[in-house]
């Protein structure tokens, strides 16, 4: 009888041990799941920053094959396509993101950006109009300024550019865009000032240096600006000034500047050589 009495106790003990084992297994499994989430999050960050953009696209596309309802993966794919400059695909990917329940106003701004990169200005404007005015970010106002520029709404463009400049610690790019807007309007002096400001903010921004040369050339000022430049940049800016002089009708001055560009360049400057040859033959 003592053996029979021990059976329920042993069974109960077994159940307790079994329960402890299951609890331990579940704890371990959850721990591994947590580690996997952290690892995946880190990998996603790597793919969005330092990985080759096309490799990142492949990574997110493969991840979405098993679960296409994850907005973080859809967003990662859209960002990677943008980085890879696959603009048509990027616009389509962002369109999927903004239709998801968890989509944010930042996602809509990125969607508008993708549309602009794809040359779809009117749809981009429609997307921006859907974003509440309380969403005040540098990128949003930069895009608003670009759309206003495309519509030749100069006052709105200036207002948006000014706001965007105040919302970033790195305003060189938007100052360059603002300067180019002034250049296209024929406000060359103001364009020159803005390009100079952009270069002071980022001395390595060659686009602003070249635009500055264009603004000076449009005013028939063919001297090089006093800005940081290496020998190759100097040659390229001389070429820009030379072509600007030709456009203004100052052909001989343009030829002189092109010859100086050719002699300044540390290597063979084929583009300037072709331009000078065409002028001489013409």
Automatic annotation (TrEMBL):
Signal peptide: 1-24
Protease keyword on record: no
Keyword Kinase applies: no
Pfam families per record: TPR_16, TPR_6
Superkingdom of source: Bacteria
TPR repeat coordinates: 172-205
Record key words, sorted: Signal, TPR repeat
Record-linked InterPro entries: TPR-like_helical_dom_sf, TPR_rpt
Name used for this protein in its record: Tetratricopeptide repeat protein
Species of the source: Lutimaribacter marinistellae
């Amino acid at each position: 009888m003592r053996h029979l009495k021990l059976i329920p106790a042993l069974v109960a003990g077994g159940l307790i041990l079994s329960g402890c084992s299951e609890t331990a297994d579940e704890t371990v499994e959850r721990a591994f799941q947590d580690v996997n989430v952290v690892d995946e999050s880190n990998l996603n960050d790597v793919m969005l920053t330092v990985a080759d953009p096309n490799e990142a696209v492949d990574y997110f596309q493969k991840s979405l094959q098993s679960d296409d309802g994850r907005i973080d993966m859809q967003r990662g794919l859209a960002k990677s396509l943008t980085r890879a400059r696959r603009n048509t695909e990027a616009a389509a990917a962002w369109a999927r993101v903004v239709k998801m329940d968890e989509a944010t106003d930042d996602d809509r701004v990125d969607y508008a950006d993708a549309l602009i990169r794809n040359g779809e200005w009117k749809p981009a404007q429609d997307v921006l109009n859907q974003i509440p005015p309380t969403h005040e970010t540098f990128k949003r106002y930069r895009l608003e300024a670009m759309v206003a520029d495309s519509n030749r709404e100069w006052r709105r463009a200036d207002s948006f550019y000014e706001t965007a400049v105040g919302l970033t610690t790195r305003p060189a790019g938007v100052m360059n865009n603002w300067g180019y807007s002034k250049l296209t309007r024929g406000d060359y002096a103001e364009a020159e000032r803005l390009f100079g400001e952009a270069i002071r903010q980022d001395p390595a921004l060659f686009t602003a240096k070249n635009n500055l040369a264009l603004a000076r050339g449009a005013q028939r000022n063919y001297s090089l600006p006093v800005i940081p430049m290496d020998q190759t940049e100097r040659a390229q800016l001389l070429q820009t000034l030379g072509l600007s002089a030709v456009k203004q009708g100052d052909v001989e001055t343009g030829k002189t500047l092109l010859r100086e560009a050719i002699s300044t360049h540390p290597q063979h400057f084929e583009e300037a050589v072709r331009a000078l040859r065409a002028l001489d033959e013409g």
